[in-house]
Hints:
Elements: H1 2-25, H2 29-41, H3 43-53, H4 57-95, H5 101-111, H6 113-121, H7 126-153, H8 155-186, H9 191-229, H10 235-247, H11 254-266, H12 270-296, H13 304-318, H14 322-370
Helix pairs in contact: 2-8, 3-4, 4-7, 4-8, 5-6, 5-11, 9-10, 9-12, 9-14, 10-11, 11-12, 13-14
Amino acid sequence: MTKILERQTFLIALTFVTGLFLFLLKPFFAPILWACIIAILFHPVQLWLKKKLGELPNLTALITLMACIFLVVIPVLLLLTSFFQQGSALYQRIENGEIQLAQYFDQIRQAFPVIQQFLERMDIDIASLQENVTAAVVGIGGFLTQNAVALGMGTFNFFTKLALMLYIAFFLLRDGRQLIEKLIRVIPMGDERERLLFQNIAGVARATVKGNLLVAIVQGMLGGLIFWILGIPSPLLWGVIMMIFSMIPVIGAGLVWAPTAMYLYTITQWFEATVLIAYGVFIIGLTDNVLRPILVGRDTRLPDWMVLLSTLGGLTLMGINGFVVGPLIAVLFVAFWQIFSEDFNADKYANQGSSEIETNTDDLIKSKSEK
Length: 371
């Protein structure tokens, strides 16, 4: 009785201390999350360096981290800076009246009466829709302006978290495998289940970033390029917006280039509009079908509808971090139910098998006794 009480007390204390430690880590959730993603994505690079340089964990982890900084971190920082600058400039033009969103909306509605008929048939108030679209665009512009100012004021905080992310990524690259083995030994769920869960976590993180983020970056670059060629203002801004929409399944970059092509038709720029539609359908649109199977492979087998819901839910609850956390929670949900189903069915069939053996044995004994 005393040993049971001691064990229960220790487990309660362990749970409390673990929860308290996780609560302390809450402000650093984003740096830890992206450090884990960096370690997962660049693990193959580290393995390649290990084959070339031998057992030098500190050196291979440092070289891998430097490659990540020059290939990912610095380009992303430059892109975000330009994105906020162009977004703020566009917002100022809207605020000053240089850009009249209502006028653009009316031009599209007059040039494509079928759209107005469709909206009326669906009982959608056109005036209300116009106000909502205008408010959304102005709200996005204000958000970009506020975040641009906040980015300038919170530079120290931003770079502190960036340095923390890279610091954690270094140790995960160097000691990640040993850490996983320790977790497998500590977590009391069975080593096979835990290895399966860790494989699913790594697979969905790799698939989400490679299959969604890289494809979205390519589509955003292609979209920004065609906008720049056609002389559409703020091509970098629209390219980044297309990249963001491309991350969300089903929605895609067409939500940006299709209305733009429609507007080009309304101002009689027939050639530019036709080129943009053809480019969007055959270049931007097919990029997803060509690159995603190559980059993702079989890292994740989530249905498209589950990817959509988990991504949208993650983005709503956690912002940009939810882009990875949402599908990760979904794949863990599927993995846990799959493990439960396999174990339950195994136990059920085992019980059925034992009952059948007992029945057959009883029948055999009865038949012998009768003889």
